[in-house]
Amino acid sequence: MRTGFLQALVVGLATVGLGQSAAQDGESANGSPLPSPALTWSSANRDALHQSLRVSGGASLPPLKCQGPQRAPLAVIRPGEGGPAPAGSDEELPLSEQQEREVRQLALPPPTQDEIRRAMPHEEWLRVLHQRLKGAADARLARVGIWGGSHMAAEFFVSEVRKQMQARYGSGGAGHVNLLYGLPGLRLPVQALCRQGKWHNELAPRAPGSEAIAAGLGLFVLSSRDSGASVEIDLSAANADNGARSVTVHYLRQPGGGLMDVLVDGAVLTVIDTAGVQAVGSLQIKAVADISRLKLVAQSKEPIGLLGAYVDDEQGLVVDNFGIAGASGAFWTHVRSDLLQQAVAQRRYDLVILAYGTNDVTGAQWDPQDYRARFESTLLAMRTAMPQPMCILITPGDRASSSRVQKTVRGKDGKRRKVFQIQYDLNTYPRRHMETARIQREIGQRHHCMTWDLSMEMRKAGGAYALMKQNPPWMARDLIHLTPLGYQEMAKAFWKWLRL
Fold it and tell me: What pTM was estimated for this model as a whole?
């Protein structure tokens, strides 16, 4: 690996401190505890773009229960479910032993030892990574941000990575609480999140040439024009070690923006005025004892835009999961760069992990050169906003596709009946994903990113089809996603790759 690449990875650690106050320890002048959620220090009034408030916390509230359904059901995609089943074919004919052997023979071979060796991270890069994370975790709070599609959104992979990293560098909190909770396949590291009233999820568009949206680190904006619309987060299980003692909300300041009440543990703490020149605003709430609830309520029909919520500690390491099912690397190119840089300035990262690809290589036709240009744009947009953090790319995993074929069979009674049988393609997508990994690795090096090849790890274990067939299965029956156990096992492989 080039020396220049390794040298570029070693950058200074920036720290952002809050102002000091005699009351910041949650005590009054005579040393007595302040009542929750009494305000003890503020950097500004409700018109300020960035505010920091102190409360005592310590309230014990019952578990939050949402009124009505909060999550769309997670779709379970069965093999071959690309369209309706052939007429009269509701019975599936299993593969014979011979057919099973023939299918498995079509899978790509496991990676060679030379391929595995070349995919390992450089020793010097690993040394710099762990040195940087340790230095940040000891001095302040080390931050790791993960962006990707459904593989990350499901939390099974990310939660294992978070657990292992925090075991080494200290628990820094639950991190990003995705306000898009309710979308299929999205899970959270907190107890519950309830949305009431009318809210609109706006994601960064994927189509080339689309207009960039006003968004923040999550590459989305949750907006409402409904008086009384609210978002409430149950933080009681946000961090099993220390509870939730620091919560930050990012919101959109915009012309004509509305007022938003902020409630902590059921009591109004402050009001945020979101009207003004378009920008990313923030409110940090710090507490002496654990915070149980955070609630944000729109006061009127003027627009409110929420960009993210974060649960942190003072030190250790925090992992922010920005995964969204269906997300594309193109999201990065369709968010206003100035707003993204403002959000990053308020929440700087030491390590950035991008896990894209599965949603970018679908369809009957795929042009590697077109994908190369689009992924180059993705990394350029990311590096424009975050030039300093160390970076890891996670490629799409091994995948297979299937289709239903109608057959007519004769039963023991001599009568014919229509059935269907699944036919599998174990080449098209696996080869695309191998090429995708090669492209990501090549472009990633130019942007000072290491690449972890998830498809290679899955092929080590036999590939998507074999992982679906094993007991217990590591692969879901859609042959795209893994099972919770499969994600956990892949996370362990990622740990080993990172020498955790």
Answer: 0.86
